[in-house]
Amino acid sequence: MKIPLTPYGRREEILFPLAVLLVGLLLCRSLPAVYPWALMVAGAAAVLILTFFRDPQRKIPQDAAILLAPADGKITDITEVEETEYIRGPAWRIGIFLSVFDVHINRSPCGGVVRYIQRHPGKCLNALRAAAASLQNEANSVGLECPEHPAGKILVKQITGAIARRIVCGCKPGDTLAPGERFGMIKFGSRTELFMLRDERLEILVKKGDTVRAGVTIMVRYR
Fold first, then answer.
1. Nearest-CA neighbor of 220 among 135, 130, 140, 152?
2. Domain limits of the chain?
3. Is 60 exceeded by the pLDDT of residue 1?
C-alpha cells in the first residue's frame, strides 16, 4: 500500500530508515544468533519512522464561517487569554497535543493571507504541560489576515515538545493559504495552538479530550 509522504521530511525519510537498517545488518553480521530478529525489528522501526512523515489526502469542508483544526491530535485546553503577539486583544486559545503516532502536518484553519511569522527560541518541555509549553517552549507563530472570514485575524502557533525539536514552516509573509492548505509540520511529538478574538458570534464545537484531524474537524463556527 502506498503511503503518501510529506516533502517537509525528505531528509529524514531517507536517512533515518537507512541508518536503522544499517544497524540491523551490522548486528546480524556481528551477532549471528540474533538473525533474523534484528533485521525484522530494524525493518519495523524503519517503517514506523516513515509513517511519522505520512501526509494523507483530506477532504476539506467548504464553509466560510468555520475554523478547521490546524493539527491532528487531542484537545488539551480551551482557555481565554489576552493575545499580545498578533491579534492583540482578548482571545480564545485552543491547544492540541500531537503524539508521535499522529499525522504532524499543520494546515490552515481558514483561507487568509500570511501577514506575520515569528520564531521564538525556548525550551523543549513536555507538550502535555499546556501552560508551561505554551509560554516557555520553542515556537513559531503564523498570523493570518482573513478579510472574507468572520474571524478577521487568527494566529496558529507551532510549538516543540520533549521529543519534537524541529519546526518546519513552509509559508512566508504575503502567501495566500486556502482552508485546510498545508503550511508546515513539527517533527516527533508536539503542540499546536489556535488563537481567535473573543466574539459573541463564535461557537466552539470541540471540548477538552476530543480527538481532531487537521483540515477536517470543524473546531469553531461563527453564527
1. 152
2. 7-52, 66-222
3. no
What pLDDT score does 33 carry? 67
Residue 16 has pLDDT above 80, yes or no: no
d(CA 25, CA 215): 40
CA-nearest of 56, 145, 165, 163 to 107 is 56
Nearest to 186 by CA among 112, 125, 99: 99
Task: Look at residue 54 and tell me whether its pLDDT is greater than 60.
Answer: yes
Tell me the CA distances in angstroms from 106 to 74, 95, 156, one per residue in order. Answer: 14, 13, 9
Fold of the 66-222 domain: Glucose Permease (Domain IIA) (2.70.70)
What tens digit of pLDDT does each residue of 79-135 get?
Answer: 999 999 999 999 999 999 998 889 999 999 999 999 999 999 988 777 777 777 788
- What is the longest distance spanned by two Cα atoms in the chain? 68
- What is this structure's pTM? 0.86
- pLDDT computed for residue 39 by the predictor: 65
Q: Which residues are catalytic?
A: 190
- Residue 79: which of 121, 120, 133 has the closest Cα? 133
